[in-house]
Specification:
33% of the residues lie in helices and 27% in strands. With 388 residues, it is α+β, with helices and mostly antiparallel strands. Helix 7 (238-280) runs parallel beside helix 8 and helix 9 packs across helix 10 (351-363). Mean pLDDT is 83; it is low at 373-379. It has 10 helices and 18 strands. The chain has 4 domains: 3-125 and 218-222, Nucleotidyltransferase, domain 5; 135-206, Nucleotidyltransferase, domain 5; 265-307, no CATH class; 313-386, 2-Layer Sandwich (Gyrase A, domain 2), CATH 3.30.1360.100. It is globular, with a radius of gyration of 24 Å.
């Protein structure tokens, strides 16, 4: 079966694309308008750039993972720092989830459908990168790249050079350390990087999403093919329809039972949270949101003890300075702070630099949200950051 891979930057209008047609280990590559894409491929994959897919982890009940869609988007609202309706969230496996821009992905799918292509799988460039057990893989172009740290884990990096590895890689190594790091693409000064990172590195050769073997990767989403039943087949399918109706009734009863169980778990969890809050703060008059009130009481307790809280100005501005250190002079116009939130107004900045800036702020431990991204006018952009 042939496979058509299409490189789909979600920030760009779906007019032209790079593509690769893989058939029996032979690869044909090209670039051009969507209307000129090859036809007849058995499978179609959209490859999303690493910087445009957020891979995160969250502990959710198995039933919540199965629901998918908007349920997962709301469950991961704190991790994404964006409106849940704007995200498409897919369960990858274990406790790993992938988050994409729903509207941008729909634009690409609609454009492909208009060009006569349907049933497009969605893959992250990160999860196409090969990996070995107890080893990380890094795709590097000489200035920036992305790293795969597990079966369903990875992230885009910030910039670096031949002698200095990216800050994102150093921060990842502070949390976990593999036995080695395989570097694909443009090899840096491996000896210098090894001294900086403290782990063995080796050049693994060239890597290109176009030539990745067909079975590689994990599909983040798949558009189902449409099908129709011939009128003459309806009568013969009547017994199957009765069986399907009974199965649906049983499934509906199971869903109601599952919903009631989850509601009971939610009430129980809230009751435990409220009990713990009242045991810690017995003078509280009312408990509306135990988690939020606990965070606020903890911040007040830290302030009374003279210990800074993660949402205070000083700790936040230190992380902001670390995240913005690669901006040019004058790149930051104004900084405003209020109640644990800091708003940063940036000068003129292009879209890739803006994405890298948001990634660096996220890697410092802040939750960052970009307000009003307009690709035609990238000056005066506002980034709101807050402590988790």
């Amino acid at each position: 079966m042939s496979l058509l891979r299409i490189y789909a930057p979600l920030g760009n209008a779906p007019l032209r694309c790079e593509w690769a047609l893989i058939h029996e280990s032979r690869v044909v590559q090209g670039e051009g308008p969507l209307a000129e894409l090859p036809r007849g491929a058995g499978r179609v994959q959209l490859v999303i750039p690493a910087a445009q897919v957020l891979i995160t982890r969250a502990e959710l009940p198995p039933s919540a993972r199965r629901n998918g869609g908007s349920v997962l988007a709301f469950a991961l609202e704190d991790a994404t720092a964006a409106e849940p309706e704007a995200n498409q969230v897919s369960w990858l496996g274990a406790d790993a989830f992938a988050v994409l821009d729903k509207a941008a992905l729909k634009r690409w799918r609609d454009a492909l459908q208009a060009a006569g292509l349907r049933a497009a799988e969605v893959h992250s460039e990160i999860l196409l990168l090969p990996r070995a057990n107890r080893e990380w893989s890094l795709a590097w172009d000489g200035a920036e790249g992305f790293v795969r740290t597990g079966e369903f884990e990875g992230t885009a990096t910030d910039s670096g050079d031949a002698a200095s590895p990216p800050l994102a890689l150093r921060l990842l190594l502070e949390r976990s350390r593999p036995d080695s790091l395989a570097v694909y693409g443009t090899a840096p000064d491996l000896a210098a990087w090894q001294r900086e990172l403290g782990i063995p590195l080796y050049a693994a050769g060239a890597w290109d999403w176009r030539t990745v073997p067909e079975p590689a990767g994990v599909s983040l989403a798949q558009e189902r093919r449409r099908w129709r039943i011939a009128p003459g087949a309806l009568a013969s399918l009547r017994p199957a329809a009765w069986i399907a109706g009974a199965a649906l009734a049983l499934h509906g009863a199971a869903l109601i039972t599952d919903w009631m169980r989850l509601a009971a778990e939610q009430r129980s969890a809230r009751a435990r949270m409220e009990t713990r809050f009242r045991s810690a703060f017995p003078d509280a008059v009312a408990v509306a949101d135990p988690a939020l009130q606990m965070r606020r009481q903890l911040a007040e307790a830290r302030h009374r003890a003279g210990v800074p809280d993660a949402g205070d100005f000083a700790p936040m501005i230190e992380k902001v300075a670390l995240g913005l250190k690669e901006l040019p002079a004058g790149g930051l116009r104004t900084v405003s702070y209020e109640s644990g939130r800091m708003t940063l107004e940036l000068a003129a900045i292009d879209a890739p630099a803006l994405r890298r800036t948001v990634a660096r702020l996220t890697q410092t431990g802040l939750i960052a949200d970009v307000a009003g991204v307009d690709t035609k006018n990238l000056s005066g952009k506002l980034i709101t950051v807050r402590a988790p």
